[in-house]
Amino acid sequence: MIPGVRVARPATIQDALRMRADLGLAGRPLAGGTDLLIELRRRPAPGLTLMDLSRLDDLRGVRAEDGTLWVGALTPHEDVARSALVRERATALASACGEVGSAQVRNRGTLGGNVANASPCADGVTALVALGAEAEVASVRGTRRLLVEDLVERPYRTGLAPDELILAFHVPVQGRGASAFVKLGRRDALAIARINAGCVVEVAEGRVVRCLLAVGSVMPRTQRVREAEDAVTGAPATNDTARQAGDVVARRMVEVSGVRWSTPYKEPAVRAVVARVLLRAMGIREGP
Ligand SMILES: Cc1cc2nc3c(=O)[nH]c(=O)nc-3n(C[C@H](O)[C@H](O)[C@H](O)COP(=O)(O)OP(=O)(O)OC[C@H]3O[C@@H](n4cnc5c(N)ncnc54)[C@H](O)[C@@H]3O)c2cc1C
Fold first, then answer.
1. Is residue 1 part of a domain?
2. What is the mean predicted confidence (pLDDT) over 108-134?
3. Which of 107, 134, 204, 209 has the greatest CB tally within 10 Å of its CB?
């Protein structure tokens, strides 16, 4: 496939974990290949072994589990986007996966690959962080669970050890709240996000009683913006509140990333994307 690169196909999760432990940095897991194969074409890595995970059927699919959704790491974006469970109970994740690339990319690219690749503009990551999802990560040493927000540490770097694989995601359901995802790209189709945002909002008697808000592509890593969440919680569910949250996120972006050539474009765009995602989750039409 790629000169100098070997491919191995573990048949079970245990085989895959053993192989990962044996190979260490000389092996890379291969899921859909939509990030990894492009990277290897750009930067060949002779002597590398690709661990093709395609036989691990147990890591594919969506099911309801104790107030959360279990989403296998090898589930392609298209399956996540079409899942009735995800659409109903974690709407932001279905929307995010439905906006990844093109139909071809969504059918090959997986949610686990999206997180493990850790691009600051990964759509699936933003939705998972907004929903407070945890990743289930395993090695021959055992299994651990950690927030996706903590797993993705910086651009293109996760906290995965060289012998670990992501097995699945545990996504809290939105419950009485609603969740939404909004992405702004340079064009409508096949666009990598310039800015994306996801949120969970619960409204009772006209006021916001719970808000989780994550933004991607505007800071070095996708993260929740607690200052904006606090500004919204307790406030009336209105256009003004959504706009105020947008102001808080735009301010935070400049504090964290500094003023760049793109700031005059990004500041108003961030405000608009954040306001839009909150209004969508609140079920309010965007005001003038
Ligand atoms: C044309 C095009 C358009 C795109 N558009 C978008 C877009 O709009 N939004 C977006 O977010 N992304 C986009 N992408 C990026 C890509 O499709 C996603 O990031 C995809 O989800 C990656 O998943 P994969 O299964 O293809 O991962 P792979 O390419 O197989 O792997 C990616 C990385 O994750 C590691 N990995 C994979 N699975 C695991 C696992 N279970 N455990 C540990 N490590 C693992 C691999 O070793 C590699 O480092 C686009 C890509 C292309 C080519």
1. no
2. 97
3. 134
Kindly state whether residues 129 and 215 are assigned to the same domain: no
Instruction: Report the CATH number at residue 240.
Output: 3.30.390.50
Name all residues whose Cβ lies below 6 A of ligand 1: 28-36, 38, 73, 100-101, 105, 108-110, 112-114, 116-117, 122-124, 160, 165-166, 190, 192
- Closest residue CA from atom 37 of ligand 1: 113
Summarize pLDDT for 145-193 with one digit per residue, the tens: 999 999 999 999 999 999 999 999 999 999 999 999 999 976 555 555 5
Ligand 1 nearest-atom number relative to CA 167: 41
pLDDT tens figures, 5-32: 999 999 999 999 999 999 999 999 999 9
Number of domains within the chain: 3
Closest C-alpha residue for ligand 1 atom 53 = 34
- Nearest CA owner, ligand 1 atom 7: 100
DSSP assignment of 251-273, as one string?
Answer: HHHHHHH---TTHHHHHHHHHHH
Residues 160 and 203 in one domain: no
Which residue segment(s) compose the domain that 112 sits in? Answer: 60-172
Q: Where are the alpha helices (DSSP H) in 83-170?
A: 84-89, 91-98, 103-108, 111-117, 123-130, 148-151
CB 151 within 8 A of CB 158: yes
Tell whether 183 and 272 lie within a shared domain. yes
Who contacts 239 (Cβ-Cβ below 8 Å, separation ≥6)? 275, 279, 284, 286, 287
The CA 84 to ligand 1 mean position distance, Å, reads: 23
Average pLDDT over residues 242-262: 93
pLDDT at 190: 53
**Cα of 136 to ligand 1 centre, how many Å?**
18
The per-residue pLDDT for range 40-91, each reduced to its tens digit, is: 999 988 899 999 999 999 999 999 998 899 999 999 999 999 999 999 999 9
